[in-house]
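Today's session is about reading a structure prediction critically. Students often jump straight to the picture, but the first step is always the sequence itself: look for stretches that repeat, for charged clusters, for runs of hydrophobic residues. Only then move on to the predicted structure, which in these notes is written as discrete structure tokens rather than atom positions. Here is the chain we will use throughout the hour.
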Amino acid sequence: MTRVTEKRSNITAFLTVLTLFLLVFTHPVSAQNATETAPSGLAESVEQGALPAIPGLPALTVSTNADGEQEYTVTLQILAIMTMLTFLPALLMMMTSFTRIIIVFAILRQALGLQQSPSNQILIGLSLFLTLFIMKPVLEEVNANALQPYIASEISAQQALAEASRPFHEFMLAQTRESDIALFVGIAGNEQIQSPEETPFSILVPAFVTSELKTAFQIGFIIFIPFLVIDIVVASVLMAMGMMMLSPLIVSLPFKIMLFVLVDGWAMIIGTLAASFGV
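Below is the predicted structure for this chain, in token form.
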């Protein structure tokens, strides 16, 4: 007990000395010493009460140029861009070819009878790169007509946004059925649209997604038929042999994979998807 008490006393003494050391060497310098050690110009400013202005955010203002268009400060533009980045996943799924591609891949995996192979990460990665390949002409047009002129300060932010939205509008309109556009025009009650080219994004986006879902399920149905035939044949053979306890899915899976490999299925499906967008 005596040794333990001595150790505790030593530890307490050490912590006390360490605390005093920190208090002495980290004690704030007085205002007089700070003024004496500061540069002469800063010391005079402190004595006169005229400290230099602290830099901060620029003013959040909106100005009007000579053409009558409103121009926003850089701070507001950065805020708008950062806000738009949060909608990037939604824009990717709702305004590009990504939706059709990922749905077809998911139906293909289900038709093969594979639950986890290829994994979701592989399918999403393949869909993203195939989307970039299909959307390359649209992105190049946006870069040439909107992004580069805006970076060079040749056009305003509003003009850049209008130039960037035009290629996407043309792409989506080319992939959307007129019946779907008419459906959402009737729901919205907007009778002022005289032609599909005048369709606003508020109507075009849901019509485009609806058309993409229809097209994806049509392609998926065609993909599903040969694998369904293999399942029916295998199930009939097993039933005729009296092997009811054996799952037909286990037996038909190797045959479906073999068929898919022999016909070069991945190249056929990717080529069909690219051709469905006119690439």
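Discussion point for the tutorial: The beta strands are 62-64, 70-72.
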